[in-house]
Each structure stands twice: as C-alpha cells, then as structure tokens.
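Submission sheet (multi-component)
Chains listed below:
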Amino acid sequence: MPTLPDGTIAVEEVWKKFRADKTVPKFYDQVKRFGKSIGTGARHDYRWVLKDVSLAVPPGGTLGLIGINGSGKTTLLKIISQVTYQSAGRCTVQGRIGALLSVTSGIHPELTGKENIFLYGAVMGMGRQKIKDRFDEIVEFAGLADAVNRQVKFYSLGMQMRLGFSIAAFLEPDVLLVDEVLSVGDANFQQKCLKRIGEIVRAGTTLLYVSHDLSSVEAACEKSVWLADAVVQASGPTREVVGKYRAAVEQNAALVTSTEGVVQVLKCEIEASDGGQIRSEVDLDVRLTLNSPKPLDANFFIGVSQGSAFPMFIVRYSGSFPAGDFEVKCRLHHVPLPKGRYSLWPAMSGHLGGKGMPLLPWRPVMSFDLMGPVAWDPPEGVMVASPVYVGADWEIN
Amino acid sequence: MTVVGSSFGDVLVENDVSTVPSEPPDDILYHHKVNYFESIRNLWAHREIIYTLAERDFRAQYKQATLGVLWAVLSPVATLAIFVVVFSRVKTFGSQGLPYALYAFVGILCWSFFATALGTGGQSLLSNKALLAKTQFPRECFPLETLCVNALGTAISWIPLALLFVIFGRAPKLATLWVPLFMIIEVVFAAGVALAVASIIIQMRDLMQVLPIITSLGLFATPVIWPFSEIPTSYHIAFGHTVYTTHLVRTHLVHHSHVVGGITVNLQLIYGFFNPLGPIIANARNTMLLGQAPQWNLVAVAVAGALTYLLVGYRIFKKLEVNFADIA
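Outcome: structure written.
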C-alpha cells in the first residue's frame, strides 16, 4: 500500500452495525454472547448505521458532514478517529488526529480548570511540556483567566465547553475532527471558534466538520457529504450538497403537513405584486385561504425559511378573524432575499398580543423559487445568520 | 490518489441509494487483528496519559476529603483494629510466634492492594465511559491507571507498618529487601485480573454486583488471617482403585477408604499458581518478620501464575476491546 501524505483521510466502503436488541438482554443471553465474542464473533440482532460509505479528503481539505439526527455522522467520525471500529471496509487516516467529539467528556468536575487543561491535553495527545508552553494562550482563548483555579463543577456548561474547545484549538493535529461542539457556546465564542478553525485549516490541517448548523458548515467547509439512513446521498461542493439537503428536508416537512390544529389551510399562493417574476427586492403578495370553525381573535404569522424550521424573517398580524372560510392577504415589502428556493410557514395562535395555544401549527405550506442576484460568500469562517426586518400590509376578508 | 465514491470532486455526485446492498460483501468484513508487540509499544508511547489519569483520580479521590491522603493510612489501620480485636481473642490460627497485629497487617496490606485493584480496576472502563466513547488512546490505560493510584495509596498505607515495628520493639530483618520483588509479582497478577475483569464487566454489568462478594470471600480464601503453612505441602491424591468400607463402631457408621495407587502433590505450589497472593504474603512475612530467605519454589509458581494471569487477561482485554466504545 502506498503511504499517503499526512492529513489524508480515506474511507473505503465502510459499514458499521449496532446491536438492536428488542429488550435488555437476560444475563443468560449475555453469557452466551460473551462466550461467542471470545470465540468467533457474536451473532445477534443488529442494524446498520453506516452502509457502504466512501469518502476521501486530501491534506488541507475541509469536508462537512450533514444529515439529520441518527444518520450516522457521529459514528463515522468515531470510526475515522479510531474510537470505535468499523464492521466492514477500510478506513485510513494518515497523521495525528485531533478529535473533538464532545468537549466536556474529558473534563473532570472535581479538578480545577488548570488541572483539567493538563488532563484533557494529555488525553488529546498533547505532551505536558507543550501544554505548559501554550497554557496562557489556552486560558486567554477560553476567557477563563479568573476561573482557571476554580473546580470545574462550579463552571457553567458554556465555560466547560470553552475550556474543552480551547485545549483542542491548540493541539495542532494533522486531521481535526469536530462534532457539533460549538452549539453550546454563545454567539461571540462560536464566531471565535470558527475563526480559529479557519486559522488551523489555513495552516494545513485537514478538517472534518459535523454540524446541524448549515451556515457554519458553509462557512467552514469547501466540500460536503450528506448522509441519510446510513447511506451517502450526495457529495460535492458544500453549497450544492447543502442545497440538496435543504430541498429534501423541505420535502419531508411538506409530507408532515397534517390536519392538526383548529384552523385549516385550504389554499396558498404567492406572486410578485407587479405581476412579474418573483425576484429579490420586489413586493410579494401572499394569499392564504383558511377555514376556522369559529370567529377568532388571534395572532397570525408568516415566516420564510430556506427549508428549515428557522425562518429568515417573520411578519405578524394581530386582529380578528371570521368563522368559516376567510382569506388572508399579505404584501411583503421589498423582500431582501438572494436567489434561491424558500418555503413559506404560516402559523396562528390565540390570545392577542401574547403567547397562546396554537390554532395553526408552524408548518411549511408551500415553497417558491426566487430569482435575483446570488448572495455574496461571507469572509472565511463567518456564519451568515441575520434577522431581517420586512414590512408588510395586511388585509383580512 | 483516487477512491471510489471520492467526495472531493468539484461536481455534485448523487449516490444511487438503490445500488447499495443490504449487507457488506464478505471480503471486506473487518477482523480485529491484535499485534501484541505493537500494542505494547503504543501503550508505552501513551504512558503520559496513564500518569495524568492517575494524577486525576488521586487528586479527585482525596480532594473532597478534609483528611486527604490520611485516609490511605486510616482505612487499613481500621481493618487491622477489627482483626486484632476479633482474632487475637478467638485465637484460631497461630501467628508463627509473632505479634498478631504485625503478622496480620502484612497480610492486610498485600490483600487490600489486590482487592482495590479488583474493585477500581474492574470498574475502570465503566467509570470512564465518557472518555472511552469519545477519545482515542490505548484502552489499557484505564485499568493500568487505577493500578497506579492504588499502588500510590498502598505505598502510603505501609507507613503504619513502620509504626507497628516501633510499638512492638522490633526491627525489619535484612531479608525485607526481597519484599519489592514480591510486590512486583503482585502488581503483575493484579494487572492481569484487572484487565480481564474490566473488559468482561463492561459486557456483563451484572458482574459488578458480584465483585464485592468475590472480594469478601477472597479475604478468607487467601492467607491473610491464617498462615500459608496451613496448606499441606504433601497431599495424597488418590486414583486407581479406591476401596470404600464401612464399619459400625459403637453407634456410628465409620467410612474408610483404602487407597491403592495415587500421587502425592505439593498443594502449596498448586494453590500458589492459582492464587499468587498466597506465596506473596507468606514470603513477605517470612522475610520481613522472620528474616528467612524466600522460598524460591513458591516464588517461582507465583511468578508463573501471575504471568499467566497477565497474558490471559491481556488477551481477553484485546479481544473484547473492539466493542468497548459501542457498549460503554
């Protein structure tokens, strides 16, 4: 086998199965299974969590892994980091691996922050001397100068996470694996982490990044792989893979549109108010036909998202709605969205002005394509996630 | 280099999911091959992790307690106090003419090291679940790390022994210099048992409940409170023709067996192989307290036994390690 340069990840036809016992195994079964595992290899119920997964990353490459919960992303990272073993196939990683699978797992609550830096550093493969040299930098990055001599059990989860990430940020591995660890930090720290990841990558480290936060994947990775149901669905440039993934999520979301809720959506239309193309910066007319069994005083919302349940903006109308079929017309002013595919999410809740029971649950009812300029790529390592204000005129008939 | 299904192309590749078979072809199944030489070299390369984890446990163990490391001294002393109160009055066994406290304490120290190794070492994989499932370094580090903590604690526990010597106006004999050798044998034995138990317990959690039972039974099955010399050196094992006869003597039935053929074995040697703690404690007492030379035949079986435990234990551990992260 030819030796690959440091920083290469090569995953070839990797399969992984997990036990899928229907009940907690009886002690007798365990003894039987144990006997077999000592001998030939146990046969029992199992399910595949990874099927025939292949991917390759050259040194210095950045690859994002996306997919819904349970699609096998973390398992794949664990196999690549050699925490666990594949059931079939081959996985080769050249060079030193820094795996950030969970930032708080190595942290011991009884020890102080300082003691934990040495502990976790060692566990992650950093020598004691190297930690000593970089100790001040790590503490500074984590912003824990005051707390470093305190026991970690008195830290908040965010502080623990900052401690964990900061140690890993100074590991200087050939391959860096990051699994959904930034989600606990505050926005400032997330931005700082992404910046640090960018620096590490520019220094030549290979990055494999797992996150549900698609904008951070887009910010950090040039290529991506989308996993679903244990299988690779698509791979290639991040923007296109993320687009595919979003489209699929949207399709799924449409499937679950159900009849729950008091108010039913009967029809939904969207068009440009000037009758032309749906483009950036034009006014859009949204027309919804709904049915309510009784007259309502309620809040009506319309949100627009890129497929996910997190809207890019929301508009709201508070007022009275008649019983029976009625129409909601909403003109969205100057919609500031770039070219892309978007979905429309209406919702309705009782108690004017406040929170109340959902009369119409938050669900996508349709999607539409919007023409216009393509959004600018953000500077490297920057996540795009901006609340947008959109003006709206309402008309209820 | 190119890999089938390489994800690093510049164009979007959509995988045809329907072509994925339901099971992997047999020729790519993964078989966990263990290269023991490589494993040990890898373990050595990661030795700093063992120290660091041991330091963590040692600090964490004594950090909460106000008395701190003093507990390492207090707990064996408490055990000794109980033994002295109970057994010096009951006086079932001889103590080879030595003060019973001194005699028993040597046994207690040797035993408590092993008992702790079995307890903490056996549960080391379970108690480090979080690290086990998320970080990658040799898994042997966990049981071995607990052994280090334990060794340090035991070393501290030897301090009261020095005090006992002063109290009874005795001095350790010159042959005490052999004691470190016996301790090394004990560490090897304990390491083997801890490796095996740790890897089995993570698969069969029920055994965790059994450990304390084994520990309390083991205390009495090991010459801690009784002298090793209670085990006969020549024991006749009968085979061939055994003739059983029964007589009526007064009102009792008396059974007699007349043995034709058989062999005489040294039970001490057999016991010593399966429980190296026997020879270790006996030799520690004989050298330290009586100034005798080590009984080399016993030392030899203890070494053989301890090495066997280590090899078998390590083999079981490596064989099962493939599942650790999945079932932790």
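Remark: Chain A has two domains: 9-251, 258-396.
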